[in-house]
From TrEMBL:
It comes from [Candida] arabinofermentans NRRL YB-2248. The chain crosses the membrane at residues 139-157, 185-203. Keywords: Membrane, Transmembrane, Transmembrane helix. This is DUF2470 domain-containing protein.
């Protein structure tokens, strides 16, 4: 049961930032508020979901949709969302801890991110959501993929690959014969090792970082083909967010006022 009557607001009760004004015509206060709203609504919707669940005590299920940061000030944030059984948008105000109330909007941003990290941890997830794919790029990865593909083809077409193609490109005959004799061992060993790496190492990471299903499938395919190099690339992406401090901090002048309805996926 939803009990929002005592704390909910209609849309008109919330302060409105005029999006028709260019950002250079807004006050510093409006710029700060607009930048934070834009930042979280554009790129950190999954974190708002965590905050709504942990700090707003709203159960997150398939009935909850369109979660957005609607209001921010120095004492609280207000998260708006829709529920399948209720026609109008619902608003959940969340007060900052009295001991941690910020004195400026840069501290507000830090405080919201701290709430995001805490709430994600309580839900068993990372506060970083990976929404991208990294393809093989260096020479080692490309050679490894090429070798694995040739071994798969060699398992099904040994004469074509080992007796013709490999010999024609100058690989010694004794190496071709060795690979041909051991192809079943190479084939099944590779499959088993890559399945282990996928199930034990990669899939838990994908779930922990809440990778969208399209990228989830692509990461699984790369892991099945390459094995550890795909896992290494995934870890590098996560480290880029952590070490690069991408999550914290933002430029008020660079962020647009009108944030898109969904986070953008980049390839």
């Amino acid at each position: 049961m939803f009990l929002f009557n005592n704390h909910s607001h209609s849309h008109t009760d919330l302060p409105v930032i005029n999006n028709d004004k260019p950002i250079n015509q807004l006050t510093d206060l409006q710029k700060a508020q607009a930048a934070i709203l834009s930042k979280y609504n554009r790129s950190y919707r999954i974190n708002l979901q965590d905050i709504l669940n942990v700090y707003g005590y709203v159960k997150i299920d398939n009935n909850i949709a369109n979660i957005r940061l609607r209001q921010v000030d120095l004492t609280s944030i207000t998260i708006g969302f829709n529920h399948f059984d209720i026609e109008h948008e619902l608003f959940k105000p969340i007060q900052f801890d009295n001991d941690l109330k910020p004195i400026g909007y840069s501290q507000v941003d830090d405080l919201i991110m701290d709430m995001a990290k805490t709430s994600a941890k309580k839900r068993g997830y990372s506060y970083i959501q990976v929404q991208t794919i990294s393809s093989p790029s260096n020479i080692f990865e490309l050679l490894l993929i090429s070798f694995i593909i040739l071994m798969v083809l060699g398992y099904y077409y040994p004469v074509l690959i080992f007796d013709k193609f490999f010999i024609n490109i100058g690989i010694p005959i004794y190496i071709c014969q060795l690979l041909k004799d051991k192809i079943s061992l190479i084939y099944y060993t590779t499959i088993i090792i890559h399945l282990i790496e996928l199930i034990i190492f990669m899939i838990p990471k994908l779930i922990y970082h809440r990778v969208p299903i399209d990228y989830f499938i692509e990461w699984c395919i790369y892991t099945l083909i390459e094995g550890f190099p795909a896992i290494k690339r995934f870890n590098k992406i996560v480290n880029k967010y952590e070490i690069g401090d991408i999550v914290n901090g933002f430029d008020l002048e660079e962020l647009p006022i009108d944030a898109p309805l969904a986070p953008q996926h980049h390839r």
